[in-house]
């Protein structure tokens, strides 16, 4: 017979036989096949030999599969029984592993649901890949100002001049407070959208009634959602009905389904942007006013960068003296990659943040990794109790692959148990998470295909990650060493890996404590920072279009109302413009100034201080039309050390600077104090009233009574200014709370693992403890000896955690223009907290062993 190496059987056939046959049968069977194949080839040729070979393989497959599956099922049943017995035998360690993995998986799945929701924004538009929003960057000497405000004529100009731009539209949306009514039904809190007719051709908002191409034929047309149609008309036909909007007749020409929550553009009704000429004094023909967000639809084959370069060539034509640069932001990146200043033209219901996605994904992965580390540590630490089982299995014929498969199977089975617990935890966590995050997540979303895939991946990842090293570690034991007295468990590799894993575990935990501390310190800084004005006990509400003198007279009858000002209160988003000029201004210096509408009582109401000059005074009759007040930042931006008496021009009107207000924060601490221009604007549409801190409820009832007596068609709505300012940081407070919860969970998981390891260490060194006590060692000395290693690992973990935590927190702090910095004491305090909790946990377990009677310790096996 020829040597097998020279017989070239088909590789696929050899692979099938090798997979189906036991190892001890393979060589014999393949030898027979090779002999038969060679004989057939010599007698009848290669073709007949190949046919004979595949016929024999085909006949062999059914019985081999049956034999393999029967044996495999029996083996799986045996493994399952062994696993369950092992779980029941070590209830405490099984509980620690299952509970830790369940918490880690629940957090991971919860973050997956949240990330899926965040990434799903604006994905329902059919032309979404072609839609871009134009961004505008204004370059000045001091900074770059980025906004989505763009010149009103820009969109249609691009459609005319560039074939790559198929369509364009202007959008202002998300505002509420405008009066919409039908008959005796009034609505004020519904969100509006001022858009071009092409809006419904570019975006996919599903029409229930009407045609998207003809939905807004003129400026007297309005498109409403199903919810508005139900509120206004009930079951009646809405098309053709006349709605009143701010006393203007608007004909319903379309009804769309309610705007999805995962749309960054939110509105309840839409009308033609042409109306904004009269309703907001928008200059739709001017290239100097950035009053609209502009969306364009590119040709499928157009290249974003090339189109962007072409758009910027318009700068030289229409902005000869301004340094302006346009950019294109893909629709699907808007929700997660926009700043607050990016969104003032399109008010978000909830603006996302890609950094939050990264942070929470990292936190979820960290918690899951901590749970997996616990499993690996405890499994390898307790391997001494199973080495003889491994040795016996190997002696009776089990291969390393069989042993590996058994312990990986145990890990996956335990992970499945943890998954069931994780789903229960997830169901309990979702309501609180929704309240905190403002989402509407549900466990039903876990049934979607992406989440099912994510669920399987998390389960498999957890099972393999947690079980890989224990399975490799146990399957590598040699039978001879295993069956010796010491069990062959003196491997330094396992001990060293456990130390590395404990270091990693501590590093993650300390890093989360540092991050949580930095975030909370920043929130404390925000809460107590002097903003430059007094925001306490100021309420803001609409003027109701009532004459100021009438409203003042009615409100002033209550002595608890101290000051009343028709003016613009601090807010998150400021609306700036560049139409501010002065003698000596560099034509290329395009500084953004932020006008603030005020009246004579503004200074007293907000307790703002003057740096130079005076504020508006009704004794000076020319102040309202000829004077202007600026802040210190504006004076510096204009290069004026002594600006009093200098002449400036705002929107073509010459004015004289009569005063400079000390800098204060008109916006949030996310942004630096901007150059501000305080303009007397006559009756403003909002009232700011400072009230006494006593009898607040009684004062509010008086204001509400005055409102009802003067304003018949609008409900009284108010807000305390300090609440408004607190809402500037709503997202950060949510982040702080979530990171705090994650830190607590990580600490719990880490301490569970440490608890298990300490228990195991104390159990393994029981005799040593007994001997030391007999020789005179005290309990504190024994405890100190056993926690010495933990302290050393802990110090190493700080070397890993500190630089990583510093980089992450520094990146997060960049969201604020004002912050207290990152101090060294935060790192030292976080390390001290983690070390103290860890040592207390270890002491609790070790002290029990150290307190035993030495006689009982020496009898211990």
Structure description:
By secondary structure, the chain is an alpha+beta fold. The chain folds into four domains: 4-77, no CATH class; 128-343, no CATH class; 355-527 and 730-859, no CATH class; 538-723, no CATH class. 51% of the residues lie in helices and 15% in strands. It is built from 27 helices and 25 strands. Strands 1, 2, 3, 4, 5, 6, 7, 8, 9, 10, 11, 12, 13 and 14 form a 14-stranded mixed beta sheet that branches. Strands 17, 18, 19, 20, 21, 22 and 23 form a seven-stranded mixed beta sheet that branches. A four-stranded antiparallel beta sheet has the order 16-24-15-25. A hairpin with a 2-residue loop joins strand 10 (242-245) and strand 11. Helix 4 (91-119) runs antiparallel to helix 11. The two termini are 60 Å apart. Residues 1-6 have low confidence and may be disordered.
Structural class: alpha+beta
Number of helices: 27
Unreliable segments (pLDDT under 50, ≥5 consecutive)? 1-6
Mean pLDDT: 82
Q: Tally the beta strands.
A: 25
Strand content: 15-25%
* Gyration radius from CA atoms, angstroms: 37 Å
Helix content: 40-55%
Distance between the termini: 60 Å
Q: Tell me about the biggest sheet?
A: 14 strands, mixed
**How many structurally independent domains?**
4
Characterize the overall form. Answer: globular
């Amino acid at each position: 017979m020829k040597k097998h190496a020279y017989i070239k059987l088909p590789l696929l056939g050899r692979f099938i036989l090798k997979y189906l046959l036991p190892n001890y049968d393979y060589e014999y069977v393949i030898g027979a096949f090779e002999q038969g194949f060679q004989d057939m080839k010599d007698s009848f040729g290669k073709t007949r030999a190949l046919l004979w070979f595949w016929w024999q393989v085909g006949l062999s497959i059914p019985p081999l599969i049956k034999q393999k599956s029967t044996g495999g099922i029996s083996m799986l049943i045996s493994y399952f029984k062994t696993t369950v017995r092992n779980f029941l035998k070590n209830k405490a360690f099984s509980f620690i592993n299952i509970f830790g993995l369940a918490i880690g998986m629940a957090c991971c799945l919860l973050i997956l649901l949240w990330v899926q929701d965040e990434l799903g924004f604006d994905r329902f538009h059919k032309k979404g890949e072609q839609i871009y929003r134009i961004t505008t960057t204004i370059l000045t000497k001091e900074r770059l100002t980025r906004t989505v405000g763009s010149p009103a004529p820009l969109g249609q100009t691009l459609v005319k001049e560039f074939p790559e731009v198929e369509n364009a539209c202007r959008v202002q949306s998300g505002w509420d407070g405008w009066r919409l009514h039908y008959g005796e039904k009034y609505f004020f809190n519904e969100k509006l959208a001022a858009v071009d007719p092409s809006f419904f051709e570019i975006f996919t908002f599903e029409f229930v009634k009407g045609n998207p191409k003809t939905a807004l034929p003129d400026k007297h047309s309005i498109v409403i959602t199903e919810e508005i149609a139900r509120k206004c008309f009930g079951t009646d036909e809405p098309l053709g009905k006349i709605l009143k909007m701010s006393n203007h007749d608007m004909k319903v020409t379309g009804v769309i389904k309610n705007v999805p929550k995962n749309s960054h553009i939110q509105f309840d009704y839409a009308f033609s942007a042409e109306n904004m000429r009269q309703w907001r004094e928008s200059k739709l023909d001017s290239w100097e006013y950035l009053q609209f967000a502009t969306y364009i639809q590119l040709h499928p084959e157009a290249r974003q960068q090339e189109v962007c370069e072409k758009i910027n060539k318009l700068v030289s034509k229409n902005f000869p003296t301004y340094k302006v640069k346009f950019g294109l932001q893909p629709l699907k990146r808007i929700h997660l990659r926009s700043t607050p200043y990016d969104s003032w033209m399109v008010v978000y219901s909830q603006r996302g943040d890609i950094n939050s996605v990264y942070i929470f994904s990292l936190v979820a992965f960290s918690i899951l990794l901590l749970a997996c580390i616990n499993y690996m540590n405890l499994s390898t630490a307790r391997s001494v109790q199973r080495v003889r089982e491994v040795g016996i299995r190997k002696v009776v014929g089990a291969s390393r692959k069989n042993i590996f498969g058994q312990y990986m199977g145990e890990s996956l089975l335990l992970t499945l148990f943890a998954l069931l617990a994780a789903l229960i935890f997830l169901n309990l966590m979702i309501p609180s998470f929704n309240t905190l995050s403002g989402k509407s997540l549900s466990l039903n979303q876990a049934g979607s295909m992406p989440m099912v895939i994510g669920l399987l991946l998390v389960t498999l990842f957890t099972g393999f990650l947690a079980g890989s090293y224990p399975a490799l570690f146990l399957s590598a034991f040699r039978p001879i060493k295993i069956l010796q007295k010491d069990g062959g468990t003196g491997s330094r590799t396992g001990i060293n890996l456990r130390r590395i894993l404990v270091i990693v575990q501590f590093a993650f935990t300390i890093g989360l404590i540092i991050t949580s501390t930095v975030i909370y310190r920043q929130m404390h800084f925000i809460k107590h920072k002097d903003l430059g004005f007094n925001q306490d006990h100021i309420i803001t509400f609409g003027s109701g279009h009532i004459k100021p003198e009438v409203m003042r007279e009615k409100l002033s009858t209550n002595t608890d109302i101290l000051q009343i000002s028709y003016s613009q209160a601090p807010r998150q988003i400021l609306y700036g413009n560049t139409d501010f000029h002065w003698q000596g201004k560099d034509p290329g210096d395009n500084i953004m100034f932020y006008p603030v509408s005020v009246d004579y009582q503004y200074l007293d109401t907000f307790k703002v201080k003057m740096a130079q000059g005076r504020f508006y005074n009704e004794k000076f009759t020319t102040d309202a039309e000829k004077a202007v007040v600026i802040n210190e930042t504006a004076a510096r931006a204009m290069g004026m050390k002594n600006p009093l008496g200098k002449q400036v021009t705002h929107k073509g009107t010459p004015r004289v600077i009569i005063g400079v207000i000390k800098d204060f924060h008109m916006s949030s601490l996310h942004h630096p104090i901007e150059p501000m221009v305080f303009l007397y604007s006559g009756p403003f549409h909002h009232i700011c009233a400072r009230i006494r801190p006593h009898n607040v409820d009684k004062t509010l009832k008086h204001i509400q009574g005055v409102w009802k007596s003067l304003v018949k068609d609008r409900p009284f709505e108010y807000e305390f200014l300090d609440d408004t300012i607190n809402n500037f940081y709503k997202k950060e407070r949510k982040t702080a709370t979530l990171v705090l919860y994650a830190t607590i969970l990580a600490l719990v998981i880490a301490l569970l693992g440490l608890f298990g390891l300490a228990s195991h260490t104390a159990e393994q060194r029981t005799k040593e403890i007994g001997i030391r006590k007999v020789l005179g060692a005290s309990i504190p000395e024994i405890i100190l000896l056993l926690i010495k290693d933990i302290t050393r690992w802990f110090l190493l973990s700080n070397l890993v955690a500190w630089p990583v935590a510093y980089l992450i927190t520094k990146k997060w702090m960049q969201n604020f223009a004002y912050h207290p910095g990152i101090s060294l004491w935060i790192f030292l305090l976080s390390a001290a907290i983690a070390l103290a909790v860890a040592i207390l946990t270890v002491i609790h377990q070790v002290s029990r062993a150290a307190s035993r009677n030495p006689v009982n310790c020496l009898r211990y096996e």
